[in-house]
Protein 1
Amino acid sequence: MIRQGVRRLSTVSNALLLREWIQPASQATKLADLKFETLAITESLSGNSTGGNSGVGADGVLNVRLHRPTKLNAFDMQMWNELETLFDAIEHTPEVRAVVIRGEGRGFSSGMDLNVFASMQEVMMSIPCEARKREALLSVIARFQKIISAPEKCRVPVIAAVHGSCIGGAVDFITACDIRLCDTSAEFSVKEIDLAIVADIGTLQRLPNLVGEQQAKELAYTGRSFFGAEAEKIGLVLKTHVDAPTLFNQATTLAKTIASKSPLTVRGVKKVVQYQRDHSTEDSLAQVQLWNSAMLYSNDLAAAMTAIATKKPPQFEN
Ligand SMILES: CC/C=C\C=C\CC(=O)SCCNC(=O)CCNC(=O)[C@H](O)C(C)(C)COP(=O)(O)OP(=O)(O)OC[C@H]1O[C@@H](n2cnc3c(N)ncnc32)[C@H](O)[C@@H]1OP(=O)(O)O
């Protein structure tokens, strides 16, 4: 009797834990339960925000703001940690179908908080062994890279809506997003060269794919500022809008459109497009064969067919 009871208890908890792996809903990482200081989750993308966290809207769009407006949304350690937590929580919140991210106040972000560089040096200097010091620095750079890569790894599309300054680490961040939109006030700079740093958290890896190697090198060698119109011309952003309200409106419309599509299919498109970037056409065609032979016959296909036949919008599960 006792052994049977033990077996049943462990079967139940195994199933529970497995279900969390498949569709995680752990309270600790649910978006609505998180409190952020340097990020704000807002009902809409427009208007000013005083912060707060209202969770994801019924439309499946998560509106995120970098929220240190008095410091031009520079990434301090709190913000790095919160971005990591945010993207982890998005994976654990199935209702999120698309993410839009913007900056609060005067711009998107002025990149790494310069105080972090000073703190990094202080922490590294406190490690007496040269090898361990370098090992520690390597692991710190790897952690920054992981956080910057989070939008690319995210299971849903992430749209960056850039107004005002977008400097250094902020360029690293937006190049890992699926789609970048901006307004005419957007001012970009691959600023690391002016700090005598080889940009090391993503820009030099992703920017050449977006704008071409020669153009990426010119921007990274000079650190010069360039504005929305040029960013669109060279292919860094998809579109430059006339002003910030229009930008936020258009970003929201795009996110809502994406969120209305089959989430399973959107996830597939993201994976397939990402795979083709890093593989040959032949390998990528083979990958999509596998994807669709596994995923084509979904409830979403049936819902889409019914929607076409009945001329009613389809309803998809997350
Ligand atoms: C392992 C490495 C990992 C990551 C590496 C990332 C690399 C980078 O991100 S390099 C780029 C670093 N960023 C910068 O160099 C930008 C510095 N800021 C500026 O040059 C200017 O602030 C500006 C963006 C040109 C805007 O100028 P302005 O409009 O005149 O505003 P300010 O008065 O200068 O700024 C308002 C307020 O914000 C503070 N602030 C702005 N940016 C930063 C920042 N990056 N770090 C820390 N603080 C910043 C600025 O000091 C002001 O604060 P006050 O308290 O009001 O003085």
Protein 2
Amino acid sequence: MMLGDKRRNDFPILYQTVNDEPLVYLDNAATTQKPRQVLEAMSYYDEHDHANVHRGVHTLGARATEAYEAARENVRQFIHAHSTKEVLFTRGTTTSLNWVAQSYGDVAVEAGDDILLSYAEHHANLVPWQQLAKRKQANLVYIDLDEEGRLDMTDFQTKLSSKTKIVALAHVTNVLGTIQPIKEIARLTHEVGGVIVVDGAQSVPHMAVDVQDLDVDFYAFSGHKMYGPTGIGVLYGKEKWLEQMSPVEFGGEMIEFVHLYNSTWADLPWKFEAGTPNMTGAIGLSAAIDYLTTIGMTTIMQHEQALMADVLPRLQAIEGVTVFGPTSPSEHAGVIAFNIDGIHPHDVATAMDMQGVAVRAGHHCAQPLMKWLDVQATNRASLGLYTTQADLNQFIQAVIATKEFFQNGTI
Ligand SMILES: Cc1ncc(COP(=O)(O)O)c(CN[C@@H]2CONC2=O)c1O
């Protein structure tokens, strides 16, 4: 039995019909669904242990604090960070990346410095750097993509220089699903004295991530992309950088002492966590990590690669369908962008929804990439650990039926 069939009954939401057809949920790159184990862990916390953290001297406060900090330790182990001081809870990837651009960027980047990005970045890993470049009169330098949408490493090394202060890249891109060689990029970036900021939103759900092995300086991801709740994410940062960085938000929790006209800050990681944190979200994220760890990231990656090896060639073989990104299935980490020639992606997605199949349509917060692809928008199917062969069979049938419907009016 494949993983998807084995684990599907952990996800109550998947057992519904849409337009009288079994739901086939293939929008996991937007957000994943939560297993009962995550839902139950959050409910248990709220029903038994909820209180505000780090301040109460009463029993519930102690239990809530213990649960919250145990969640942080669980994240540390999951990404193999050296210390919990390096694991900051945020609202999600977008907040994490903004914190780096504002706090690290403002102290490290000066006029004339280079910030290297790729055309394939999500807006969350592009717009914060645009704002930093404007604030500091720094240069945004875009690394070319090759003909199949991979990062052009030759162009990267050409543009990398002693002026490079920051390299900001996705580990896995959210439209093409390309896996960027982060470990090599980190090594090359450090050789010129730069730091590497990695957008891990689309990689953490699909593969094991070891931030020490990758030797990245910052790594950002979201709970809701990895079978956890929304509203909780993580910023990993090397302790040496976080110690130098000023807080981005100010108030309770993050202070050591508040005088009338100045204040001192709490130690890491709390220096960056102003106000009451999302305890339930952190506990839900920790339960998601336990769930993924029980299955094993290698097992998940193998499952999704097997499905991709089946579905990508079948989609590529449909006449009148354009599939974007690398030709090889092994270079797609769970994501396929495609169009049916001559049919607007929104019409395709609507027609597929009529057949119970949920795919994304639009620019996917990657408008520079749409320009590079020379399209306004694409459709996107994205797999999860619960995706089954039956899901993909229904997906392929829906693409074919949608094409025929728009060509001759029958579905
Ligand atoms: C590569 C990447 N980076 C950052 C983000 C932002 O994450 P948060 O919204 O959790 O801060 C996303 C979200 N993915 C978008 C959301 O919907 N569809 C997508 O592809 C993403 O895919």
Protein 3
Amino acid sequence: MEAIKTKESRIVNTDQVLSCDLNNYNTLFGGVLMKKLDNVATLSARRHSRVKECVTASTDSIDFLCPIHQTDSVCIESFVTYTGKTSMEIFCKVIAEDMMTGERRMAATAFLTFVALDEKKQPVEVPGIIPETEEEKFLYNTAKERAEMRRLRRKKSKELAEYITVRKPWDK
Ligand SMILES: CCCCCCCCCCCCCCCC(=O)SCCNC(=O)CCNC(=O)[C@H](O)C(C)(C)COP(=O)(O)OP(=O)(O)OC[C@H]1O[C@@H](n2cnc3c(N)ncnc32)[C@H](O)[C@@H]1OP(=O)(O)O
């Protein structure tokens, strides 16, 4: 399978901050941003793999670096940074821009892992990636370490799931 350039999976989505999406502090509700991140990242995964369905296998931590105000625009940029056999790591950056002054701030960053599925909903192989810019190369070269951390985390999660109960709480 032929590798694909990182830029081919790049998705850029810019939105206003709607008043219905604010929290009690009048800044963008983090949950709304997380949903947007997943939507944009899904499109990057689908653009890279060109399959009908890609599922979110895991999300790393999200770092909210600064609040997003109603006077800002929110631009989410996502692209595939690294691929395994059937999985894709997607990096998202969130840039808030003050629409009055033009000041741009890095509001959040996040890594998500998607898996491409075939018609039977089984993981299917994805093309490799060709990073070109300095940023793409940096993310590509540091991805193996993040993948290993996820592998260990997944192992621990499975161990925990075997240990904890699924019994109804009142049936103890
Ligand atoms: C809280 C703050 C964070 C926020 C920061 C981002 C912000 C944004 C948040 C949006 C948060 C909403 C996100 C909901 C979005 C939906 O609603 S999507 C629906 C939710 N997702 C699902 O239902 C998926 C459920 N899981 C599954 O179906 C199966 O486990 C999977 C993912 C298809 C994997 O299938 P499997 O049979 O276990 O296959 P397996 O061969 O073991 O693994 C296949 C590949 O997946 C990889 N993989 C599997 N599990 C994992 C894992 N946990 N981690 C990494 N890689 C994995 C494997 O390493 C393997 O990779 P390759 O070596 O092939 O490259």
